[in-house]
Design a protein that fits this description.
- This protein has helices at 12-24, 35-44, 61-72, 85-94, 106-126, 158-169, 177-185, 194-207, and strands at 4-8, 28-32, 49-53, 76-80, 98-101, 133-135, 138-141, 146-149, 152-154, 175-176, 217-220, 224-227.
- By secondary structure, it is α/β, with parallel strands linked by helices.
- A 5-stranded parallel β-sheet has the order 2-1-3-4-5, with helices on both faces.
- Helix 3 (61-72) links the parallel strand 3 (49-53) and strand 4.
- The longest helix has 21 residues, at 106-126.
- The protein starts with a strand and ends with a strand.
């Protein structure tokens, strides 16, 4: 059964073009011109992924993203003409799974879609494992999206959570930066190691008692990172 993708964009030509190209690539495509219509459509016929423009009339893409995530945890790729880095980072930290800026090559978009769908399927498979995961005083429950350290709740962004969860699934195993990029962000981020460095620093600030002398999230110099029980 082909994956259902919902295209949300107020540009009619863009909607038709994307729908044509996605169906040609083997997907089932639906379209909506507003976030309100898209949310109503998704309740009737849940998509496997949403291509969501930020600059929509009425409810904008950022607000719509929250509703899609609350509704069913549907993966979302922002499609936007806004090139300001702040918008892109804000979108990702709010829970978008990826973004692509207009104008774009259709093959590049298809690569983004495949990467996000692979991650979504992998996360669904992982959700079948017994939980919560426990590594020392660190507890992770992906079904409830909850992390705690010695019983103290820790507030993580979606990407921070995915990074920590990936490491916790195989404690003591060293993950290379390239592996973490491919597993957590997707293949399109390979070659951008600073993404891992920044998120690892943020994670340490939240779960380590002394982020400058980490005891749980360790760097293996020249290799990568591992999660251990102190």
């Amino acid at each position: 059964m082909s994956k259902h993708i919902l295209i949300v964009d107020d540009d009619a030509l863009m909607r038709r073009s994307l729908a044509f190209n996605l169906e040609h690539a083997g997907y089932r495509a639906s379209t909506a011109a507003t976030a309100e219509d898209a949310l109503a459509f998704a309740r009737r016929d849940p998509p496997g992924l949403v291509l969501l423009d930020i600059g929509l009339p009425g409810m904008d893409g950022l607000d719509a993203l929250r509703h899609f995530k609350e509704q069913a945890g549907i993966p979302v790729i922002f499609v936007t003409a806004r090139r300001r880095e702040l918008d892109e980072v804000l979108g990702l930290e709010l829970g978008a799974d990826d973004y692509i800026t207009k104008p774009f090559d259709v093959d590049v978009l298809l690569a983004h879609i495949k990467a996000v769908l692979r991650r979504s399927e992998r996360q669904a498979q992982l959700a079948e494992k017994p939980y919560p995961l426990q590594v020392g005083e660190l507890a992770i429950d992906p079904r409830a999206h909850v992390v705690s350290v010695a019983g103290r709740p820790v507030d993580l962004s979606p990407r921070e959570f995915d990074l920590l969860h990936t490491l916790a699934l195989q404690p003591n195993r060293v993950f290379s930066v390239a592996e973490l990029l491919a597993n957590v962000w997707g293949a399109e981020f390979v070659g951008q190691p600073q993404v891992v460095y920044v998120h690892m620093r943020w994670l340490r600030e939240k779960i380590e008692s002394d982020p400058n002398q980490p005891r749980t999230l360790l760097t293996v110099r020249g290799v990568g990172y591992k999660l251990v029980s102190p």
